[in-house]
Amino acid sequence: MDPLLASKSEASAEAQAASRAQAERRRLVASLSIMVAVALIVRLVVMRFAYLSLLDPARDHYIPGWENGHYTFGREYERIAKSIITGQGFSSPYPYPTGPTALVGPVYAYLLAGVFKLFGALTTSSTLAALTLNNLMSSLICLPVFFIARRSFGPKIALWSGWVWAIYPHSIAGSNAWIWDTVLGTLLFTLLVMYTLKLERSTNYLAWIGYGLLWAIAALNNANVLSVLPFFGAWIFVRQWRSRTLRLGPIVAASLMFLVGVAPWVWRCSKIYGRFVAFRGNLGLEVLVGNSRDTSFPSNWDETPGSNLAQLQEFQRLGEPAYMAEKQGEALRVVKDRPLWYAGQTMRRVLYTWTNVWNFPPRWTFDEVGLPNAIVYTIFTVLAFIGLRWAIRNRWEETIPFLFPLIFFPIIYYLTHQDDGRFRHPIDPLIIIFAACGLHSLLSKRAGGLRQGEI
């Protein structure tokens, strides 16, 4: 063959391959854009009917609300954000001024303060803006879900996972009910999972520094993400060591970036409390919320200053550091004096985390402990465990990093308290991926059974 013709033929083949790859990328971008757009539209439609409940004046803890028994949880971030924009600093999470606080992390509070600065504090406009931001972040989670699933389980399961997340009922409802760090935390955590997978063989310093920065931001939003940091780090270390790409320099750079990112907040919280406080200082109070004498719901918010006037007055009298120290002592006494009861409550929380079943039988109500909610939760959990079994059998090494969040992330909530899906939500994207694997497994078995029946 003429070398010139052969060269032209090779160039033509390369051009065709490049054209096909470019067309494939365009189709992928279009498909993912549609997925995110549908997810956002569905959430905004729900927002149209949901946002009015967040504007109920009784939720703002006016004094008449105490006597009438109004449910008053859920505005700590909004009050802190209001304090920030009115020059009072990161303070006063409860209805009356109570001084500097370490009750929650700073990232979402400052984000919400930015919303209040633009649209006014606790106005209709700011509520709609905060919920719209929630819905946008929730919709964007489709993207890391897709890429995580594609890398580990293939394009079909990736497509299913993205679309299931787009219409996942708890994501849709939660992004329109929680003016809280939950949705942002879920997006950050899902990005961390995707980033971890991409760093499996990377020695790029900038990539590792970005990884450390993302961990710092996620931890300052919800410190519980750190429950899986050692395991993700160990997984990357082992993978790089086995592939002989291990370099300690980038790992050290990422660690320093993380420490630089979180150190000012830890120093500030420790200074306020007069003792070392890592991120938050209210662990004892959280234990009491889930282990009080009233266990008709997974969380008894009457144990908190946000829902109990007597507790708020005690909080104001003692100040936050002394109040939280007192609650720490009370929590230790509960665990010490009633260990078997506490163990039983912990097992109830384990069951509730994965099924939303708290009382037997579940009530036919549409709240967090109602039967409809439990049915939906349980269906996704069952599918996820079927998918997990399939993944372990067929893609064991790809499945290992996903086991860490499923095992370790909920532990702190088993020990303290659970609440309406918020606390499990950051690992819901992984549960959705495994649910898609489970659906794939069941449909594959059914298709195989049909083929055998035809024979």
The proportion of residues forming helix, as a percent range, comes to: over 70%
Mean pLDDT: 86
Structural class, by secondary structure, is mainly alpha
Radius of gyration: 24 Å
Number of distinct beta strands = 0
Total number of helices: 20
- Form type: globular
Question: What portion of the residues fall into strands of 2 or more residues?
Answer: under 5%
Low-confidence stretches: 60-73, 449-455
List the secondary-structure elements in sequence, H or E. HHHHHHHHHHHHHHHHHHHH
What gap, in angstroms, lies between the N and C termini?
A: 50 Å
Largest β sheet strand count, sense and barrel closure: none
Can you put this structure into words, describing what you see?
The structure is a single chain. This protein has 455 residues and is mainly α. The chain contains 20 helices and no strands. The protein has helices at residues 3-50, 63-67, 76-85, 106-119, 124-140, 142-153, 155-166, 169-174, 182-198, 205-221, 229-243, 248-273, 283-290, 309-318, 320-337, 339-355, 371-394, 396-408, 411-415, 428-454.
What key phrases describe this protein's structure?
single chain, about 450 residues, mainly alpha, about 70% helix, disordered C terminus
